[in-house]
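In response to the reviewer comment on reproducibility (Comment 2.3), we provide here a single inverse folding case reported in full, input and output, so that an independent group could reproduce the run without further information from us. The structure tokens appear first.
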């Protein structure tokens, strides 16, 4: 029955949303945590006093090396967040949900305990803790994305909602910063986060499947609390039926339209999709937009310090404003999914008269989302390039909307444009390759601090021009859909 197990599915959805919101992407609230670390004198030995101004009076300390150290930690953490998504996706595909989640819990708990017991004297441990924290968080996200399969036609909306929660989790470091300012120690906050791992374990065994949630969902599917001893057998039979169904597509039923020669000859291996033009342009689109976001987040504390003239109170105010806007990512992301779901339903109705394939319908629904994400990033990049402090409020708003659209749209596009059996590997591969591009943020930051003497104008202009290149991806997808529809229209 369709309603059977609905309370369990809703519980899985809501607890998964809470898990992504509170734990999966907290690294990206880095600016708030850096403020606390600086107050705790982390890497303060790297600061050098300026030359004397008059008599015995010296200028403000030159903390360029300290900023570079924090930027390097964030670069490493954000790189691992993406690069390790590929092996994480492989682990999820190969060893399934329970193993992937237990690994995530181990990495996450180890990281939070390490941060809890670090001090200014052992600050180098952050180079170990932050990558572990991000890898654990991305495993939480990957295992939760499959929850969208439980809700059929709302699948894209839920996927983008979870990615929005991933973005909003960066507000956790703001909460830690505010608690710190009220007298709660950094150690106490991270010990509390570590204790929450007991909740992750309970959810793993009670509200998540042992294997994968299939799509489309077979009748009478059960998991977690509702699963019996025959769960593994049912999942195996479901997988076998999916393979038989895929094989039967080679001989189309009489009522279905016969695929064109290009579709019949297309190989179904993972590498055939990974080396396709569609995947390559999607990689360019994700990498360039993501580089902007990572560079902005990783250097925000330094940027605000420069624009505020070293006023710590003003830097704290703008840091809080940025972190608060990040929380609203969970509200922004579903609009992207709703847009894609509505367009898909609209194009499915049109497909009945035009004879378009299901893949073409899915790709057409993704085009406006891809283009809108590029447009939002362009607006964010232009505002971030203007060295006016009050304008950064607008930058914060555009940044959170763009970022929530980016990651939600990325996951949703991969589910629509490629076979579900390769989702984990393709999602991991595109994140891993984009991570290599994200490593550019540290040399860019060093270049701005060194040869450019804190003037990022030329770098910003170059990156804005690179952002324009991302509009090629939605255009190529649109052109591909149009080419596929043209032969059918003339037939």
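Designed residues, in position order:
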């Amino acid at each position: 029955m369709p309603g059977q197990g609905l309370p369990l599915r809703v519980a899985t959805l809501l607890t998964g949303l809470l898990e992504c919101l509170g734990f999966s992407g907290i690294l990206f609230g880095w600016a708030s945590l850096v403020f606390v670390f600086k107050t705790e004198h982390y890497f303060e030995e790297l600061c050098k006093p300026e030359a004397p101004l008059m008599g015995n009076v010296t200028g403000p300390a030159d903390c360029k090396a300290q900023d570079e150290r924090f930027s390097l930690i964030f670069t490493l953490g954000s790189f691992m967040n993406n690069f390790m998504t590929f092996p994480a996706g492989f682990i999820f595909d190969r060893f399934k949900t329970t193993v992937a989640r237990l690994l995530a819990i181990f990495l996450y708990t180890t990281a939070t305990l390490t941060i809890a017991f670090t001090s200014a004297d052992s600050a180098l441990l952050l180079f170990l803790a932050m990558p572990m924290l991000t890898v654990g968080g991305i495993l939480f996200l990957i295992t939760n994305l499959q929850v969208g399969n439980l809700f059929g036609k709302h699948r894209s909306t839920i996927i983008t909602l979870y990615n929005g929660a991933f973005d909003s989790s960066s507000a956790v470091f703001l909460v830690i910063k505010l608690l710190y300012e009220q007298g709660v120690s950094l150690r106490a906050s991270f010990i509390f986060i570590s204790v929450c791992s007991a909740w992750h374990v309970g959810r793993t065994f009670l509200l998540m499947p042992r294997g994968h949630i299939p799509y489309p969902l077979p009748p009478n599917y059960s998991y977690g609390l509702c699963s019996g001893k025959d769960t593994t057998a049912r999942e195996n039979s479901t997988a076998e039926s999916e393979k038989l169904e895929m094989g039967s597509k080679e001989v189309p039923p009489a009522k279905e339209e016969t695929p064109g020669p290009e579709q019949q000859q297309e190989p179904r291996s993972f590498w055939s999709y990974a080396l396709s033009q569609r995947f390559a342009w999607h990689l360019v689109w994700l990498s360039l937009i993501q580089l902007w976001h990572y560079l902005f987040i990783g250097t925000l504390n330094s940027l605000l310090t420069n624009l505020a003239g070293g006023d710590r109170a003003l830097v704290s105010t703008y840091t809080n404003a940025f972190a608060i806007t990040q929380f609203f990512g969970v509200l922004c992301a579903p609009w992207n999914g709703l847009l894609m779901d509505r367009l898909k339903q609209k194009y499915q109705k049109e497909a009945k008269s035009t004879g378009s394939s299901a893949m073409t319908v899915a790709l057409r629904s993704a085009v406006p989302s891809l283009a809108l994400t590029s447009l939002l990033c362009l607006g964010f990049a232009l505002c971030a390039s203007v060295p006016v402090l009050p304008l950064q409020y607008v930058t914060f708003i555009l940044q959170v909307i763009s970022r929530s659209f980016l990651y939600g749209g990325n996951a949703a596009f991969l589910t629509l444009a490629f076979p579900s059996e390769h989702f984990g590997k393709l999602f991991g591969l595109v994140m891993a390759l984009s991570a290599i591009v994200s490593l550019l943020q540290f040399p860019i930051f060093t270049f701005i601090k060194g040869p450019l003497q804190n003037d990022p104008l030329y770098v910003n202009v170059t990156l804005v021009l690179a952002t324009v290149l991302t509009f090629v991806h939605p255009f190529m997808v649109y052109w591909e859909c149009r080419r596929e529809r043209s032969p059918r229209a003339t037939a």
